[in-house]
DNA sequence: CTTGAAAAATTTAAGAA
DNA sequence: TTCTTAAATTTTTCAAG
């Protein structure tokens, strides 16, 4: 783990929300010269502190779609079945997120697909993956109240 | 809703994962001249098709933290209580995502905070918001199997 | 949409705090 | 080290076709 100083955190905070800011503007915002600002950004990139830059696309303007969140519970908690399920997930592009969790569920999935009938197909593939020893509950996203974008790094640093 | 042609979709697909690509390189990838490529990107931005550019920060390299997913069920499904809850969500930076869903739960929340004790504080604030007429179930994220980044636009267009 | 020139930004290198 | 300055390179931007 690299040590990050206050300036690095400022850079990260800005780039989280304005990833295409010019280096000159960024340098000014953090009170550095452009070259030393660039040096820090490059270091954050090569250290993996910044792992990627994403454009956020307003899907509604591209095409109709549905977003669902599915809770998944495996009947048998063997390593093999988990591995098999995770492997399957990675072959389905509509499954855009998968996390393993503690508690009554094993996974949360986020699935984005054109309509409910295509959702049902995906659901069937997921359920059949481990010989139907899997319970999936689906929740259609009706509204995105707060979207996952930037994280307030200061709320993490100072003990929330 | 703006009409998007094949080239726009290619641009969106690339920018989703490589938001800081230079316009020259982007132009080459989509077989356009730099100036007309830039024109398209600017149009996508001003139409809101591209809503933001985010740097993805590897939180583990910044500081210790926990990510939780919480399911929320309101006892009373009145508009006022929903509004109150949504308003509260927006005052808590550690709640980085909130969606309204159909099914047995009303909301899914994603919460990122320094540790479980700060999580408990946030939980208490959420529960007390509507006179404790709210049920929250917490799931600690143990592993991020597949992270939410780019969406395969072709899987949406062609009927999944 | 393309070309091509002007303006701006990025990147590199030399050297100071 | 990390920073700044300054020059060279590359990119962005805009006008004209």
Automatic annotation (TrEMBL), chains A, B:
Keywords for the protein's UniProt record, in alphabetical order: DNA-binding, Transcription, Transcription regulation
UniProt cross-references to PROSITE patterns, sorted A to Z: HTH_ASNC_2
SUPFAM superfamilies according to UniProt: Dimeric alpha+beta barrel, Winged helix' DNA-binding domain
Entry GO terms, CC: cytosol
Domain HTH asnC-type: 4-65
PANTHER family: LEUCINE-RESPONSIVE REGULATORY PROTEIN (PTHR30154), TRANSCRIPTIONAL REGULATOR AZLB (PTHR30154:SF34)
Protein name: Lrp-family transcriptional regulator
Native species: Marinibactrum halimedae
